[in-house]
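Forum: Protein Structure Q&A
Topic: Joint prediction for protein chains with partners

I've read a bunch of threads here and the consensus seems to be that you should model interacting components together rather than docking separate models afterwards. I'd like to see that in practice. Below is the full input, 712 residues plus whatever partners are listed. Could one of the regulars post the assembled result?
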Amino acid sequence: VAPTANAPSDKALVPFVSVAHMMALVHRLGAETVLAELATAIEADFRRWEDFDRTPRLPAHSPQGVIELMPTTDGVHYSFKYVNGHPRNTRAGLQTVAAFGLLAEVSTGYPVLLTEMTLLTALRTAAVSAVAARHLARPDARVHALIGNGAQAEFQALAIRALTGADRLRLFDTDPTATAKVQRNLAPLGFNLTTCTSAEEAATGADIVTTVTADKRNARVLAANAVAQGQHLNAVGGDCPGKTELPPELLPRCAIFVEHPPQTRVEGEIQSLPADHPVTELWRVIAGNAPGRRSPADVTLFDSVGFSIEDFSALVWLKGRITPDLCQPLDLIADPDDPRDLWGMLMRAGPEGGTT
Amino acid sequence: VAPTANAPSDKALVPFVSVAHMMALVHRLGAETVLAELATAIEADFRRWEDFDRTPRLPAHSPQGVIELMPTTDGVHYSFKYVNGHPRNTRAGLQTVAAFGLLAEVSTGYPVLLTEMTLLTALRTAAVSAVAARHLARPDARVHALIGNGAQAEFQALAIRALTGADRLRLFDTDPTATAKVQRNLAPLGFNLTTCTSAEEAATGADIVTTVTADKRNARVLAANAVAQGQHLNAVGGDCPGKTELPPELLPRCAIFVEHPPQTRVEGEIQSLPADHPVTELWRVIAGNAPGRRSPADVTLFDSVGFSIEDFSALVWLKGRITPDLCQPLDLIADPDDPRDLWGMLMRAGPEGGTT
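Posted by a regular:
Agreed with the consensus. Here's the joint model:
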C-alpha cells in the first residue's frame, strides 16, 4: 500500500504487543509451549553468552521501590526492558512488578518491537528457573516446593514441570489466601498439590525448592536446617540490595550458580558472602564448559536476579511469534520523505497532524 | 466507564502521543509558543538542577552509530529517552536521530506517558540552544549564522528568534540543497535570510553562530579565525566521542558553558581540552550563582550535547499539554484485579486476550 502524503511510512510504524495481545498469544500457543520455547531461546543465547553486551542494569532507587532499565545487545539486535519493583504497590491494587520492553535493529537504531513485559517477564523468569533446574536438579526430581505463592508462583510451577517433569507441588505462603489462589489456578492443570503450614514443611521431601517472595528486606523465608542434601534451590525473590530470602548461613553449604556475577554479588542472595566466594556462571554449565551438580548429595542453588540477556531472548522469540492480528502498528518514529526536512514534515502535516 | 471483566483498567492504560499527535499539538499551539514554553520549562528545571539524578546516559555503540538511554528523576517523576544516532541512516531514507520517551511516577513505578520524541527532541534541543543564547549572547544580538542546514536547522532558527529576537539568518551547508530547504521552509516566517558560500562567510557579522552538522568525526566546520569578538557560539552537532565540529585551537579563546561537565568532557567539543580546563555549568548562570558573559567582547560558547534533564522537562511539559484527542490509551501494563493473580488474569482472558 502506497502511503498517502502525510501518513507515516512502514519505517515509522513499530509493532506494539499489548497485554491483551500477549494473553491471546499465550492462549493460542499454550502456556507450556510458550515456557518451553522461551527456555529453548534462553538456552541458545546462554550458550553464546559472550556475544552479548553485559552492561549493568541502570536502577533509580526511591523509598517506595526501584525503576530499572535493562539494556543489552548482540550487535544485531538491541533490547531494553523497563521494569519497576514496588513491594507496597499491591496495597494500592497495583502490580509489584510491571514492565515493558523494546527490540531495535542495531544497524539503524530503529525500534522493531514494543511490548508489554509484565506477562513476558513472568514467563521468562519462570523459564530461566526451569532451565536452571533442568541443568542442576537431580534428574529424578519430581517434588517441587513453592515458597511464596504470589504473582510468579504458577509460572514457576508450570515451567519447572514442563522442563523437569516435577509435578508434585508443595505450597506455602505466609498468607493462606495466596496459597488458595495457586491451588485454585493449578488444580485444573494436573498437578499433585499439597498445602503446607510452614516453609520448612513445604521443603521436606522436595527435590526442587523455589523461593519467590516479595518483601524488600533481608528475610529468612526458610530455616537453613530445613534444606536437605540433594535439593536444588531456586532463589528467585531476592533480587536487589537489602532484599534476600535465604539465611546467610545456608549459602556456604550450597554449590552456587548465578547469571552475571558482578550483578548477583550486589543484588542476589550472595550479597551477604565475601566478594571472592566461588560461584559458577549458569551459562557455562549450559555451554558445557563448567560442571553443574557434581553428586546427588550436593545442594545446588541458582541465585536468580534476572539479567538483560534473558529479556533479549524473550523479545527476539516474541518478534518471531507475533502475527498481524497480535499487534498494532504504532506511529512512534517520525519519518519525513526527506530525512533532513523534519520541519517541512511538521508544517505540511497541518492541524490534524497528518492523521486521516 | 466501568471496565468489563477482562478489559484493562485505567491503571493499565498509558497515554501514547504519536508523531501525528505531536504534529497536531504543535499546530494547535504554534511552534514558537511550544518552543517558548519548553524554554520556560527547561529554565525552571535548570534552576533546581541539583534536585535531579544526574546518572550518565547509557550508550550502546556500533560501527553504524549509537543507541542511548537517557534516564533521570527528581524523586517525583522518572523519565527516560531512547535515542539513536546513525549518521548513515539518511542514505537509506531514515532519520539520523529518532527517539521516543517515557514519563513515570516514582511512587508506583507506573508509566504515565509514552511519546514519540524525534520531534520533541528537535524542539527541546532548539529550546536549550535558545535558553543558552538568551543568557550568553549580547542583549543586542540580531544576526544568527546557522552552519549545518539539516533536520535541526529550522528549529534552532525559530527558537533563537523566539527568545533573543535574532531574525537575520545567515545560512551555510556543504550541501546547497539543504540550505535551499531551510530557505524554503523559513521564508514564509518573516526571517531576513542570506545564503552564504562558506561557513566563514556565514559567521561574518553574526552575533550568534550555531553549528549543527551531523558527520561522525572530528570536523572543522568553521575556521578559528572566522570567529569574532563578542560572538556567542552554540555548538550543537558535536555530541559524542570522536564527533566534534570546532577547531580545537578556537576553544581556549572562549568562555565555555556546558550542561553536565562529566558528560560534556567526554562527548562535547571540550573532549580535546585538558580535563581540568575551566567550564561553567549553564544551570548556574540561569540560577544566578555563576556569571555568564562578562563583557561585550567575550566569545561565549555553549558546548551542547543534550542532557536527560532537558528531556524530563519536555516530557513533563507535554504531560501537562496533552488532551484526550491528542493521545491514545495503550494497554501496556498488566493489571489483574488481584495483583498477586497474574496467572488467573491470563487464564480468564481466554483466546481473545480479553479484547472485546
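Chain B touches chain A through 91 residues (CB under 8 Å).
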